[in-house]
Amino acid sequence: MKQIMEKFKIDSNIDVIFENNDWVVIENGIPQISAPKYLYKYYSLNNFSIDSLENDYLYLSNPKDFNDPFDCNRNLIIEQRKELRDWQYVERLNDISDIGITCFSENGMEPLLWGHYANSYRGFCLKLNVESLINDQKDSVQLKKVIYSQAPEAISQNHPFSDYYQYLLKLNNWKYEQEWRLLFKKPSTTDNRFYIDKNCIEEICVGYKNMDNLNEKDRELKTTLDRIRKEKFKDVPLMTVGPHQTKLELKKVLLKDGTVEEGMEMLKHNFPFLFK
Predict the structure, then answer these.
(1) Best CA proximity match to 193, nearest among 61, 44, 45
(2) Cα-to-chain-centroid distance, residue 138
(3) Nearest to residue 67, comparing CAs of 152, 154, 157, 170?
(4) Residue (of 105, 274, 259, 132) closest to 195 by Cα position
(5) Distance (Å, whole) CA 67 – CA 54
(6) Residue 20 · residue 32 · CB < 8 Å
(7) 262 pLDDT exceeds 60?
(8) pLDDT grade, residue 166 (50/70/90)?
(9) Which has the least CB within 10 A, 25, 179, 183, 216?
(10) If pLDDT is split at 50, 70 and 90, which confidence band does 1 have?
(11) What share of the chain in percent tops pLDDT 70?
């Protein structure tokens, strides 16, 4: 049975038109775009990100582990609000176990994202083909753009959009992230993993500090990353990102073979001021 189209006003500039378990965001009278062709996933270099790359999955997080306590906050749902006194609560208002979320950005060249989510340019970033990423799993997931608002209204749980609103609303402070989210219900059924076709990865980009040899652990992780890339992604372009030589912006450079030695030579050639 076709659902009735319903509207929800998030703030003075943003409306949502909800129909048939889908929605369109209208900002300042302009409908927002559907999913772009590519999205980017930033990673720190650690055992978890290496395992994710090697075993073809994206980890589905509980919102309580996010770095923003207002993210997925239950206070966005009117009926879930409750008054608390003094130090009655040191609880998380976004501890949600029945939804798993993995996050992406429209922008693979955002300095703040490289700094915050790729361990200050020591990590890496994947360029993902959106159509191949979702593939035949469209019925089990929602891939939607985050809605940014300075003064969002709370929603009643009786409104059909309330099933998603809590997970997609962020304060305007985070707008630079240009974030998209994949929402997966009951993530425990897949051990909090969303499995992907490795062919959706169209580019691997490492930060320019990825080649620093700070300690034995880092060297082991980078050796493992290089092995995975050569075994599974030999035809995928390997790039590096670092500060532009003459401008206050990032520059992306192709690493033809991807060896550490060549990487250092390419960095010295393109970013000579780093080696003075």
Answers:
(1) 61
(2) 18
(3) 170
(4) 132
(5) 26
(6) no
(7) no
(8) very high
(9) 216
(10) very low
(11) 87
- Using alpha carbons, list the distances in angstroms from residue 193 to 66, 172, 197, 244: 17, 29, 13, 36
Q: Which residues sit opposite 16 in a β-bridge?
A: 8, 25
Q: Once rounded to an integer, what is the mean pLDDT over residues 234-253? A: 94
In degrees and rounded to multiples of 5, residue 51 shows phi and psi of: -65, -40
Cβ neighbours of 79 (radius 10 Å): 12
Three-class HEC string of the chain? CCCCCEEEECCCCEEEEEECCEEEEEECCEECCCCCCEEEEEECCCHHHHHHHHCCEEECECHHHCCCCCCCCHHHEHHHCCCCCCCCCCCCCCCCCCEEEEEEECCCCCHHHHHHHCCCCCCEEEEEEHHHHHCCCCCCEEEEECEEECCCCCECCCCCCHHHHHHHEEEHHHHHHCEEEEEEECHHHHCCEEECCHHHEEEEEEEHHHHCCCCHHHHHHHHHHHHHHHHHCCCCCEEEEEECCCCCCEEEEEECCCCHHHHHHHHHHHCHHHHC
For the stretch 19-74, pLDDT in tens is 988 899 999 999 987 789 999 999 999 999 999 999 999 999 999 999 898 899 88
Longest CA span, the chain: 68
pLDDT per residue as tens digits for the range 102-151: 999 999 999 999 999 999 999 999 999 999 998 767 667 899 999 999 99
Q: Taking Cα atoms as reference points, which of 81, 96, 64 lies closest to residue 185? A: 96
